[in-house]
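Hi again,

Forgot to attach this to my earlier email, sorry! This is the prediction with uridine-5'-diphosphate bound. I've pasted everything inline since the attachment limit keeps bouncing my files.
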Amino acid sequence: MRHDSRQNDQLRPIKVQRRYTKATPGSILISAGDTVVLCTASLEDSVPPWKKYDETPSGWVTAEYNMLPGSTSPRKRRKPDGRSSEIQRLIGRSLRAVVDFAALGPRTITVDCDVLQADGGTRTLSITGGFLALLDTVLAIPETCQLAEGEIFDPKKVFSDSVAAVSVGVVSGEPVLDLDYIEDSTAGVDMNVVMTGSSDFVEVQGTAEGQTFNRGMLDAQLELATLGIKQLTKIQRECFGADWPL
Ligand code: UDP
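Structure tokens for the complex follow:
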């Protein structure tokens, strides 16, 4: 039995609030148990300098991640650290895996993931919520952007699939889904799995702490992650209802 009485294959309760703040077209407040992340996505009608010379004008998606000082105890200092850089690069790669940059056109979308409360799984929740913020921003392009002459912008063409992420691990010798901080800090194996809505892998990060794990245990964790991502994808879809373009 897990310390919070969950089954091994059970996610924490997930809540998603769309259009949480007003300043950006994409704004998603997402929580998994006590982990809470605000994901906003902002659009610019320009591309980074290294993209300007592309033969076909195409866009870019990037991400920033931050844990707010009061999101944990002791307080997290505001200065950037290696962990945050690593996490924001993971978020950016995960989101870019499902985006067609030519269909996006010469625009840049920055997805900001700010952790309001940290209780394990902040990077995976940032990806699951960040995708929704990105989706809302792309859906808003026809109303909020000056389209190029003759441009027919189709948000459906921008995404090949949806993307979501979840943590899995081995706690007290058992494979478990969606670790909170108590589990994360005692886990013998800790993995972060990023997958598309059609259950293809985007990225798998897995580390054993002071032990090893065999192929069977790896497969059992990937099985749990697949199950978790299916549920997260369903929640993402339900949140968007008729607006879901995929
Ligand atoms: N954590 C913290 N302060 C830090 C880093 C991590 O309190 O500077 C806690 C936080 O609850 C976080 C958990 O440790 O969610 C696990 O951190 P990890 O680096 O494994 O990333 P995450 O699971 O959040 O993606």
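DSSP finds six helices and nine strands in the chain. Helices lie at 82-96, 101-104, 122-144, 155-158, 181-184, 215-240.

That should be everything now.

G.
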